[in-house]
Write a structure and sequence with these properties.
293 residues; alpha/beta; Rossmann fold; six-stranded parallel β-sheet; two-stranded parallel ribbon; binds NADP nicotinamide-adenine-dinucleotide phosphate
């Protein structure tokens, strides 16, 4: 299979979508990215997607569009369902009609976090909240309507673009002498630029039509407290960070206490080697101009 010349990127203004645009401009001069937001292409209209693909001779789709506000989803289930299930099903159906690579992102939140060893793609899902349930249903719909769909589950995403934990911490460090951060939730902080690089490697691979579920996260594990401490140290902040328990910081949506994902399938079958999370964090802070000299 030839590498796709025209790629459709949905949710192009989000963290992963923005990083994809940067990498495509830098590293893939022969690929044209058709980057769409909700106003350019309505993902709830299958005919509109179908027409767009034909008009622009799209040869691969990377779906970064998603309803990602985990807590808001608890009271906004309909919008979460439309973006995370209906839109995904539409994209999968159209990709199936055209028989082109379709890469869709999902989340560590499909698991309940009751394990204490890294989750494999084959482990049983048990989503805890509305966002998590819609993401899991989106995965199932995509694979049902297009078995060649590649589902890339990732976690704890941050970037110089969009809203994320790193940017929130940097803002709070500048505003307050002390903050509290949860230390009993464990996961894998993952730089959206690394997710984007992995998605592009997959979509440009001769194996891009081999559907299935894979996990991509940085190597190593951290609690939110560990992550905050690393941002604090690497940015040269002097803010005091106090470790607290999840029940001391109640949120509308429950989160998995342990959401470490195993990346073995990508490492062994695709030779994709994720970076260590702290090294990736340094790269992101450097890009943001926030790395201490
Ligand atoms: N962020 C995380 O920590 C995290 C963790 C695990 C997995 N993931 C998954 O990774 C993927 C990318 O996440 P991200 O952090 O890059 O997300 P993000 O920054 O929140 O961006 C989401 C994008 O989707 C668009 N969007 C939302 N609802 C839409 C709709 N109804 N129709 C069309 N576009 C819509 C948004 O556009 P507007 O700006 O116009 O709303 C935005 O461009 C998602 O599938 C997410 O579930 C994320």
């Amino acid at each position: 299979m030839n590498p796709p010349k025209h790629i459709l990127i949905t949710g192009a203004t989000g963290q992963v979508g923005s990083e994809l645009q940067v990498l495509l401009r830098q590293n893939y001069p022969y690929t044209t990215a058709f980057c769409v937001g909700r106003t350019t292409l309505d993902l709830l209209q299958m005919e509109a997607i179908e027409a767009y693909l034909t008009q622009h001779r799209i040869a691969a789709i990377i779906n970064c569009a998603a309803y990602t506000q985990v807590d808001k989803a608890e009271t906004d289930a309909e919008q979460a369902y439309l973006a995370n299930v209906v839109a995904v099903e539409n994209l999968a159906r159209v990709a199936n009609n055209h028989q082109i690579p379709f890469l869709h992102f999902s989340t560590d939140f499909v698991f309940d976090g009751n394990k204490n060893t890294p989750y494999e793609p084959t482990d049983t899902a048990n989503p805890l909240g509305v966002y998590a349930r819609t993401k899991y249903e989106g995965e199932q719909k995509a694979l049902q309507h297009y078995p060649n769909t590649i589902i890339l589950r990732t976690a704890w995403v941050y970037s110089s673009f969009g809203h994320n934990f790193v940017k929130t911490m940097l803002r709070l460090f500048a505003e307050r002498p002390q903050i509290n951060v949860v230390y009993d939730q464990i996961g894998c902080p993952t730089y959206a630029a690394d997710i984007a690089a992995t998605a592009l490697a997959i979509i440009h691979s001769p194996k891009a039509m081999q559907g299935g579920i894979h996990h991509f996260v940085s190597k190593g594990v951290a609690s939110w407290y560990d992550f905050a401490m690393a941002i604090n140290e690497l940015s040269g902040s002097t803010c005091h960070i106090e470790p607290i328990l999840t029940h001391q910081y109640p949120t509308p949506a429950r989160r998995p206490p342990y959401s470490v994902l195993s990346t073995q399938t990508l490492q062994q079958e695709w030779d994709i080697q994720p970076p260590y999370w702290r090294e990736a964090l340094e790269r992101c802070l450097k890009t943001m101009g926030s790395l201490k000299e």
